[in-house]
Amino acid sequence: MWLCPHVPGQRGEPQARVLLGQALGLPAAALPLARDARGRPWLQPPLADWDTGWSHSGEQLLLGLGERMRLGVDLERIRPRPRLREIVRRFFHPDEIAWLEALPPERLELMFFRLWCAKEALLKAHGHGISFGLHRLAFAEANDALHLAWCDPALGQASAWHLHEWQATPEYRAALAWHPKMAG
Fold this sequence. Notes:
By secondary structure, the chain is an alpha+beta fold. The chain folds into 2 domains: 2-73, CATH 3.90.470.20; 74-180, CATH 3.90.470.20. The protein contains 4 helices and 10 strands, in the order E-H-E-E-E-E-E-H-H-H-E-E-E-E. The longest helix has 22 residues, at 105-126. It is globular, with a radius of gyration of 16 Å.
C-alpha cells in the first residue's frame, strides 16, 4: 500500500504506473497494465498473479498491490456532506440505513465515510464499481471493525471477503478489500 501526494484534477493512473513499476522492477511504460470493459485495471502476463487498484481524492492517491488475490481500494477526503442522510437513504442497504439513522449526529459523518470507503473498495475489487449498487452489500460493525454481513450472490460469499479500513490522515478515510484469487 502506498499513500502519496496527488495533484487534484489529474488522473491517478500515470502516478500509479510509476509506483507499480518501481515495486515490480519495471519501467512504467513497460508495465503490462490493461483495463477491462468496466475500466478495472488488470496486470497482464507475466504479472497476472498480481492485482492492483488505486483511488485518488483531493490531494492524495492510495495504491494497492497484492499477489494471488483480487483487491480494491478507496480513499475519501472527509468533508461536510449537507445531504448525507439523503444519500444514505437513497443508496445504502436497509440495515445500514437503520443503523446510521440511530447514530448521534457527531458519529454519523465518520461512519458514513467508513461505510462508503468499504463499499467502494469491495465493489472495485469485484470489478463492478459503485454502479452495481451500494445497497447490494451490507456491512456491520463488531469490535470497532467493519465486516461484510451480507452481499448479493453475484459478489460471492460474504465470508470470503476481507476488509481493512483506517484513517489514512486526519482528513482522509481509506479501505482495502480483498478476496482470494477469483476467476478473472
